[in-house]
Amino acid sequence: MATTERNKLNNLYRHWTPGTPLTSEDLAALGISADLAVHYVRAGWMTRLIRGVYSRPNDTLALNPCLLLLQRSIEGLHVGGKSAFDWYGVRHYVSQHPVLHLYGWTAARLPDWFTVRFPAEYHRKRLFDEAPDDPLHAGPFEKRGGAPRVSAPERALLEVLSEVGVRQPLQEARELMESTYNLRADVLRGLLQRCSSVKTVRLCLQLGRELALPWAAKLDATQLPTGSGRAWVSRSADGLLVLKP
Q1: pTM of the model as a whole
Q2: Is the Cβ–Cβ distance between 184 and 228 less than 8 Å?
Q3: How far is CA 50 from CA 54, 113, 134, 138, in A?
C-alpha cells in the first residue's frame, strides 16, 4: 500500500467511531474519493451496506448513529408513537419482538441494511401544522448531544391516537393513555391546536375525560379543532368508533 493511501486509511479509522455508518459525502470530507472507497471495500477495509453507505469491517452498528444518518435523507424523520413512549419508559406491556416506529413527512422506504438490524416501521404522517425540518416537540432524545430526534410524550400520544382505526387497536391506545398521568397540558394544548386530524383531537379529549386524567380537565374543547357539530364515525376491526364533538 502506498504511503499516502495508508495515511488516508489511518486517518479514516481515527475519525470513524465504531458502530457508525458513513456516507460517500462523509468519506469525501475525510479525503476518501469514490474510487478509493471502492478499493477499500474490495480490500476488506470497509463494508458497503448499500450504494453510498459504508461501515467498518465486521462492525456492529449502533441504533442512534444509524437513525442520525436516516434523518439526513428522510424529511422529518423521528422516533414516535409507541416507540417514543417506550424510550421514556411508558408502556403497558413489554413486547417480545419490539418494532421501532419511525415517522416522517415524505414517502420513503427504510433501507434493508437498517431493518435487518433494527426491525422498524415507517409512518408517513403530516399530523401537525409544522415545518418538516423542525417538527413540534420532537428533538434530540433528552436533549443529549448527538442523540436522534424523538417525539415528546405529548406528541407520541397523539401519534398513537392518530393510528386508531387504522393499525392501532383502540384498547391498547386506551391502556397506554392510563400511563400518561403527568403529561404537560400546555404542550398538549399547543399540539392539539395545530393538529390536522379531527379524529385525533376528539379521541384525545374523550379518552382523557373517561380516564379522568388531570391534563384533560385543563383542555378547553371550544378552543381546539374538533370539527363540525356532528359525530365522527368510523368502522374498523375494533368495531364502530363514535366520537362526539
Answers
A1: 0.89
A2: no
A3: 7, 7, 28, 28
- In this predicted structure, the answer to whether residue 94 has a pLDDT above a threshold of 70 is no
- The CATH number that domain 3-55 falls under is 1.10.10
For the stretch 123-174, pLDDT in tens is 998 999 998 888 999 999 988 888 999 999 999 999 999 998 888 888 889 9
The x, y and z cell numbers of residue 226, run together, are 374538533
What is the rounded distance in angstroms from the CA atom of residue 217 to the CA atom of residue 183? 12
Q: What is the identity of the amino acid at 20? A: T
Q: Specify the DSSP element, H or E, that contains 140.
A: strand 138-140
Torsion of CA 137, 192, 166, 72, to 10 degrees: -20
Tell me what the pLDDT averaged over the chain comes to: 89
How far apart CA 89 and CA 9 sit, in angstroms, is: 41
C-alpha cell at 178: 392510563
Query: HSE (CB half, 13 Å, CA atoms) of 20?
Result: 17
Domain-wise residue ranges, the chain: 3-55, 63-243
Q: 7-29 pLDDT, tens per residue?
A: 888 889 999 999 999 999 999 99
For position 4, what pLDDT does the model report? 65
**First-to-final CA distance of the chain:** 72
User: Helices then strands (H, E): number in the chain?
Assistant: 10, 10
**Partners of 149 in beta bridges:** 140
Alpha carbon distance 63, 148 (integer Å): 9
- pLDDT tens digit sequence for 154-167: 999 999 999 988 88
Whole-angstrom Cα distance, residue 44 to residue 115? 24
Q: 79 and 66 in contact (C-beta within 8 Å)?
A: no
CB 136 within 8 A of CB 65: no
